[in-house]
Design goal:
5-stranded mixed sheet, about 35% strand, 17 strands, about 25% helix, 6 helices, Immunoglobulin-like, alpha/beta
């Protein structure tokens, strides 16, 4: 498991009964987590006095309660700073476990010895975009949500990257790739963080189990002749790291030299000393 253990301003304090107790800076949150199927005793006193708790509704969706949070605040990871903003569907605008991947590809970019162009697909609020740009890459950030792309711009500015070579695109990722193929545009690295299910800006339906193989094959066509890396993430519990590795290896490494490693991502849990699984990734490094 790749564990994002270098956070100073984010901590999972405890997990139990389908929930995790977290610290985001100085604010404590309780949020549901499908991986937490154990029912250990909730000894941490913050379980009873967290600043906010998100509860799911039986009719779908959910809501924050006992909410004593500001509308938004900032936390940092090394030289990166991100805006935290609790949203309607339990999210906060950042996935802290991805820091393990940020550290991995930042080292590759910084040691490449040449300019690196990165394409970040399903790029959300730009955690990976900011990390890649901070390492010196030029980045193309693509997401179907106008609001998420605006949040990515704010995160870049917070990290001192307001004038960095980042191109922000609001578009369906598949349609964008198809246009880039026609334009003949290439990228040295691709980061792909697809949702389990989603819709594009004009109603395009995405289901990861049905679409991911074709999409990886399509994306391969915009890799440069000397690519550096390819990163594929998944939060879908039924889609294993090994399954994703099979896809990346057959689609990316059949004609290119390199290797891939697939594993779970995790975050340390302070009170238990264990790690909470938080999805999985495949890291492809080209030679």
């Amino acid at each position: 498991m790749w564990i994002a253990s270098n956070w100073k301003e984010y901590t999972i304090l405890d997990t139990s009964s389908g929930e995790k107790l977290e610290l985001w800076g100085k604010y404590s949150l309780i949020r549901p987590d499908p991986q937490v199927i154990w029912k250990t005793e909730k000894r941490n006193p913050l379980w009873k006095r967290a600043d906010a708790s998100y509860s799911r509704s039986r009719s779908g969706g959910g809501a924050w309660s006992e909410n004593r949070l500001p509308e938004k605040w900032n936390i940092s990871y090394g030289d990166l700073t991100f805006q935290i903003k609790p949203m309607g569907f339990k999210h906060t605008g950042l996935f802290p476990e991805q820091a393990a991947n940020w550290d991995w590809f930042r080292e590759l970019i910084e040691n490449a010895g040449r300019p690196i162009s990165v394409l970040n697909l399903f790029a959300y609020t730009g955690g990976a975009t900011v990390a890649a740009a901070k390492a010196g890459a030029t980045v193309c950030h693509v997401d179907a949500s106008k609001g998420m792309v605006a949040a990515a711009k704010e995160n870049a500015a917070l990290s001192g990257l307001a004038d960095a070579p980042i191109r922000y695109i609001v578009d369906d990722c598949k349609k964008f790739i198809e246009r880039e193929i026609r334009r003949g545009r290439k990228y040295d690295a691709i980061i792909m963080d697809p949702p389990s299910y989603g819709r594009g800006p004009t109603g395009e339906v995405w289901k990861i189990e049905e679409n991911i193989d074709d999409f990886v094959a399509l994306s391969e066509k915009v890799l440069s002749d000397s690519p550096l890396f390819f990163l594929l993430n998944s939060y879908t519990t039924g889609l294993s790291a090994s399954t994703m590795k099979y896809i990346t290896d057959t689609r990316l490494l059949n004609t290119r030299s390199g290797f891939s490693i697939a594993d779970e991502l995790g975050l340390p849990v302070k009170d238990s000393g264990l790690a909470l699984p938080c999805g999985s990734s495949v890291r492809v490094t080209f030679k």
